[in-house]
Amino acid sequence: MPTTDRKPLLLDFEKPLAELANRIDQIRQLAAENGVDVSGEIRKLETRAMQLREEIFSNLSPSQRLQVARHPRRPSTLDYIQSISDEWMELHGDRCGGDDPALVGGVGRLGGQPVVMLGHQKGRDTKDNVARNFGMASPGGYRKALRLMEHAHKFGMPIITFIDTPGAWAGIEAEHQGQGEAIAYNLREMFCFDVPIICTVIGEGGSGGALGIGVGDRLMMFEHAVYTVATPEACAAILWKDAGKSPQAAVALKITSHDLKNLGIIDEILPEPIGGAHSDPLEAARTLKQSLLDNLDDLNRLTSQERRQLRYEKFRKIGVFTESVH
């Protein structure tokens, strides 16, 4: 898991927290230099800092949640896999000539049960992001994911997916290699698998790139993650020819976990540590692991036919609406 002992990367709305933290450090330093006991004042300021953090992160706008979901130190797929699995072995290649680093996967054990885990993988810095194509998978990545899921289906292993991508790679080469077909094929096949499938949006879930590994019996989402048909910037550019209106688009798109839970698209919201998952990655991993184990326990009680039927019904309900007649 990423560590939290490095200097944090501040988001705009976190600046008041940084200013208060600096003030506390200055008081500590002055007190130490002058031999003055200010422990009472320090405790008051630390309590205020905690209250302020809670206030800020409990009232984030959709565009601010998007910033949290994109935080460069937010735990990634590999971070979570390494933290929650008892054993883990990454498998490579789509058996068609490629091995996309933007989508990773392999076999492991979760709570002692053999599982296949896979997901999008962003980089931790610019160099790593370029190597991982910023988590935007190619057709080969989705074919690798399908190969691993077919392996799970064959050997009766539950499938765990982690969604974190701004979208599938949209380059010309990706189109030449059949990007749309690869994603569509995954959608169809995931509806047919006999084994339990649990999908979790851990950061940014964008467009068909997210859907390519997003068909499951359970769809969970971290509290500050986002899930959307298009990025707010792209939506604003299309609708208003102005990417600067992305905050307005983020509200209209209903991208937050609470909006999507109310719409019946996701099944469960996973609470994050105050300050976001990147502020305490191990706590976020513990929350994720417990939820995965609980859901697996429920799904394992069903027959494969029952799971397929419920999976079908779950997605048939998405997009249902009621018109009022005046």
UniProtKB/TrEMBL annotation:
<keyword id="KW-0443">Lipid metabolism</keyword>
<dbReference type="GO" id="GO:0003989">
    <property type="term" value="F:acetyl-CoA carboxylase activity"/>
</dbReference>
<keyword id="KW-0808">Transferase</keyword>
<dbReference type="GO" id="GO:0005524">
    <property type="term" value="F:ATP binding"/>
</dbReference>
<keyword id="KW-0067">ATP-binding</keyword>
<dbReference type="InterPro" id="IPR011763">
    <property type="entry name" value="COA_CT_C"/>
</dbReference>
<comment type="function">
    <text>Component of the acetyl coenzyme A carboxylase (ACC) complex. First, biotin carboxylase catalyzes the carboxylation of biotin on its carrier protein (BCCP) and then the CO(2) group is transferred by the carboxyltransferase to acetyl-CoA to form malonyl-CoA.</text>
</comment>
<keyword id="KW-0963">Cytoplasm</keyword>
<keyword id="KW-0276">Fatty acid metabolism</keyword>
<keyword id="KW-0444">Lipid biosynthesis</keyword>
<keyword id="KW-0175">Coiled coil</keyword>
<comment type="pathway">
    <text>Lipid metabolism; malonyl-CoA biosynthesis; malonyl-CoA from acetyl-CoA: step 1/1.</text>
</comment>
<feature type="domain" description="CoA carboxyltransferase C-terminal">
    <location>
        <begin position="44"/>
        <end position="298"/>
    </location>
</feature>
<dbReference type="InterPro" id="IPR029045">
    <property type="entry name" value="ClpP/crotonase-like_dom_sf"/>
</dbReference>
<keyword id="KW-0275">Fatty acid biosynthesis</keyword>
<dbReference type="GO" id="GO:0016743">
    <property type="term" value="F:carboxyl- or carbamoyltransferase activity"/>
</dbReference>
<protein>
    <recommendedName>
        <fullName>Acetyl-coenzyme A carboxylase carboxyl transferase subunit alpha</fullName>
        <ecNumber>2.1.3.15</ecNumber>
    </recommendedName>
</protein>
<dbReference type="InterPro" id="IPR001095">
    <property type="entry name" value="Acetyl_CoA_COase_a_su"/>
</dbReference>
<comment type="subunit">
    <text>Acetyl-CoA carboxylase is a heterohexamer composed of biotin carboxyl carrier protein (AccB), biotin carboxylase (AccC) and two subunits each of ACCase subunit alpha (AccA) and ACCase subunit beta (AccD).</text>
</comment>
<keyword id="KW-0547">Nucleotide-binding</keyword>
<feature type="coiled-coil region">
    <location>
        <begin position="282"/>
        <end position="309"/>
    </location>
</feature>
<dbReference type="GO" id="GO:2001295">
    <property type="term" value="P:malonyl-CoA biosynthetic process"/>
</dbReference>
<dbReference type="GO" id="GO:0006633">
    <property type="term" value="P:fatty acid biosynthetic process"/>
</dbReference>
<dbReference type="GO" id="GO:0009317">
    <property type="term" value="C:acetyl-CoA carboxylase complex"/>
</dbReference>
<comment type="similarity">
    <text>Belongs to the AccA family.</text>
</comment>
<dbReference type="Pfam" id="PF03255">
    <property type="entry name" value="ACCA"/>
</dbReference>
<keyword id="KW-0436">Ligase</keyword>
